[in-house]
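[Protein data]
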Amino acid sequence: MSINRLGGGESRLETGISYLLIAGVIVSLVLEIIGIIFFYRSYGHLAISQDARMFIQGHDFFSFIYELFQGKHVAGNAALFMTAGVMVLILTPYIRVIASVIYFGWEKNIKYVVITLFVLVVITVSLALH
């Protein structure tokens, strides 16, 4: 039930989660910038589009991701990159919770496994219903 501490008092979990969250935000930002560049090159402006193809659509978040990778709901490269950036940003905390469950399971800390599994179920249900 010990959480291994590093030099500055941080656990490996805290350090790993920090890197995960930073990486998720950076990847999301890069995808958004690429999408904005493609959008500007395609349309010549950065005005918000009212085109229905530019909006996230689908029964729920997971079906939207599935349909996105099948080539549905995307109005071109710009929307694909911007949508992927938003997906990465939304999935980053989800992956963080999965990493926490794995870490606490590895450490055999049943109390925190149960708590993080509950959080994972709540997030999963939330994404599945929206």
